[in-house]
């Protein structure tokens, strides 16, 4: 269903000069909400202007030689805006005429504008006075500078398709204020959005919101997120991804530049904080180069690196509250940490059962500081950590006498327990040296792993 609604406002704009009378109405052409808007095109900056010309009180009928329209910023004198629009051979019926004027896309910026008209309808050219003030239709008042647009839904929707770098909305802050804003968005509701960027194209590098810096100013920022409340727990900039792919926040660097920079000048805050409250990954690094690098600033040196093959290099020591180095090996089910282990007939680790068992290999590690024999993506089902170097808790028995610090330990008759080795234990039966004492029948002591 297509129909046009014309609203004509007939203000009192009677102009009398040299016997020439002109009454100037304005016209608004509004599209019905039910009109088909599937085919869209740019409307440009031109507009329709209508009026009525009378000579000696009689409406003109026929053709006026020319009508010239000039736009000014003041009622008298002032500066002319754009070029004069001269239209020749204007058809006039019962005094009424209609013309299309175009003073350019920047002619109307919210400041006052006045139209000066020269008329030549066969009696010579005359300039009408005074200039006519260009007034807005009521709804256009919501677009004047300083106005606030309030409503539900999309109260302001602008689309541009005119080029690869076209901008539907451009915000520019260039004033002398310390905190000017090119585009300012504020949300006071619990689920509101001050500025919402949405990219719906299925292909291509579209951007819902894009921040770009083209200056050499080291303090310039393409997108800046700030929390002013000292006790605030919100996010200056938040990236969220509810899909199965893609990125909540994506930073890309090139030519030595940095994609994402996190910085803090405090001793307690964080430049970048990765947080995971579920079963996902708090921080993931991927690529063909080094996955992680840590640098010192003074002097500038690489201090820590994780390369693409998973090799870890560091200039300093590695500290951990754990105490031993363990290897992940296949094992039978039902074993527990601290038990003495032997190699079973099937090649899997199993619990020791007799004294001086020669197939003994070590102790089930309780909390290994280093873990070998497993890839990052490899499942550890069916394997357990066998302590082969370092200090480890071990289950022990006093069946061969009270254990004192420094005693050699071997397997005992108590399954999974170590005992005092005594003098001259057989080769291949010693699993370590006691670091603590045991007076009770059974218990747990610290042991330095020493296979011999």
Word description of this protein:
The protein has 452 residues and is mainly beta. Among the domains are: 4-142, Immunoglobulin-like, CATH 2.60.40.2060; 324-449, Virus Head Decoration Protein, Chain: A. 0% of the residues lie in helices and 32% in strands. The chain contains no helices and 25 strands. The protein has strands at residues 4-9, 15-17, 20-23, 26-31, 47-55, 58-59, 62-72, 80-92, 96-101, 114-120, 125-127, 132-133, 292-297, 300-306, 312-314, 324-330, 340-343, 349-351, 360-364, 368-372, 383-397, 408-411, 418-420, 432-434, 442-449. The strands form five sheets. Strands 16, 17, 18, 19, 20, 21, 22, 23, 24 and 25 form a ten-stranded mixed β-sheet that branches. The model is unreliable at 1-39 (pLDDT under 50).
Detail the topology: elements first, then pairings.
Layout (H helix, E strand, L loop, with lengths): L3 E6 L5 E3 L2 E4 L2 E6 L15 E9 L2 E2 L2 E11 L7 E13 L3 E6 L12 E7 L4 E3 L4 E2 L158 E6 L2 E7 L5 E3 L9 E7 L9 E4 L5 E3 L8 E5 L3 E5 L10 E15 L10 E4 L6 E3 L11 E3 L7 E8 L3
Parallel strand pairs: 16-20
Antiparallel strand pairs: 1-4, 2-3, 3-5, 5-6, 5-9, 7-8, 7-10, 10-11, 10-12, 13-14, 14-15, 16-21, 17-18, 17-19, 19-21, 21-25, 22-23, 22-24, 24-25
Q: Report the count of strand segments.
A: 25
CATH hierarchy class name of the domain at 4-142:
Mainly Beta
Portion of residues in helices?
A: under 10%
How large a portion of the residues is in β-strands, by DSSP E?
Answer: 25-35%
> Please, what is the average pLDDT?
80
N-to-C SSE series?
EEEEEEEEEEEEEEEEEEEEEEEEE
The assigned CATH architecture of the domain at 4-142 is: Sandwich
Strand count, sense and closure of the main sheet?
A: 10 strands, mixed
Low-confidence stretches: 1-39
Subunit arrangement of the protein: single chain
């Amino acid at each position: 269903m297509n129909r046009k609604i014309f609203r004509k406002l007939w203000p009192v704009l009677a102009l009398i000069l040299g016997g020439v009378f002109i009454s100037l109405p304005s016209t608004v052409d509004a599209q019905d909400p039910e009109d088909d808007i599937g085919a869209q095109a740019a409307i440009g900056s031109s507009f329709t202007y209508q009026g009525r010309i009378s000579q000696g009180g009689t409406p003109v009928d026929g053709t006026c030689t020319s009508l010239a329209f000039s736009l000014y910023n003041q009622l008298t004198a002032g500066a002319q805006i754009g070029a004069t629009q001269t239209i020749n051979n204007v058809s006039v019926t019962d005094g009424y005429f209609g013309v299309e004027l175009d003073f350019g896309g920047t002619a109307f910026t919210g400041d006052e504008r006045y139209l000066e008209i020269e008329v030549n309808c066969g009696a010579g050219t005359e300039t009408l006075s005074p200039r006519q003030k260009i007034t807005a239709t009521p709804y256009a008042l919501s677009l004047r500078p300083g106005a606030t647009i309030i409503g539900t839904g999309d109260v302001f929707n602008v689309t541009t398709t005119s080029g690869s770098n076209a901008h539907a909305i451009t915000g520019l802050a260039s004033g002398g204020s310390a905190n000017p804003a090119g585009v300012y968005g504020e949300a006071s509701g619990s689920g509101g959005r001050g500025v919402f960027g949405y990219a719906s194209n299925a292909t291509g590098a579209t951007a819902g919101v894009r921040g770009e810096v083209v200056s050499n100013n080291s303090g310039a920022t393409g997108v800046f997120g700030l929390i002013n409340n000292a006790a605030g727990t919100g996010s200056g900039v938040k990236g969220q991804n509810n899909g199965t792919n893609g990125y909540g926040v994506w930073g890309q660097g090139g030519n030595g530049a940095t994609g994402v920079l996190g910085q803090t000048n405090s001793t307690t805050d964080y430049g970048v904080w990765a947080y995971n409250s579920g079963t996902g990954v708090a921080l993931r690094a991927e690529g063909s180069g080094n996955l992680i690098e840590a640098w010192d600033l003074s002097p500038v040196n690489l201090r820590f690196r994780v390369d693409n093959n998973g090799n870890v290099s560091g200039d300093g020591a590695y500290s951990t509250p754990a105490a031993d180095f363990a290897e992940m090996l296949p094992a039978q089910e039902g074993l527990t940490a601290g038990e003495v282990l032997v190699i079973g007939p099937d090649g899997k680790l199993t619990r020791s059962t007799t004294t001086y068992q020669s197939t003994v290999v070590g102790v089930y590690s309780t909390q290994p500081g280093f873990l070998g024999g497993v890839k990052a993506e490899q499942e550890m089902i069916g394997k357990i950590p066998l302590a082969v170097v370092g200090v480890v808790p071990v289950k022990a028995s006093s069946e061969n006498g009270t254990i004192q610090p420094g005693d050699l330990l071997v397997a005992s008759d108590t399954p999974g327990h170590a005992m005092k080795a005594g003098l001259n234990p057989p080769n291949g039966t010693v699993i370590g040296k006691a670091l603590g004492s045991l007076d009770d029948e059974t218990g747990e002591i610290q042991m330095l792993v020493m296979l011999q």
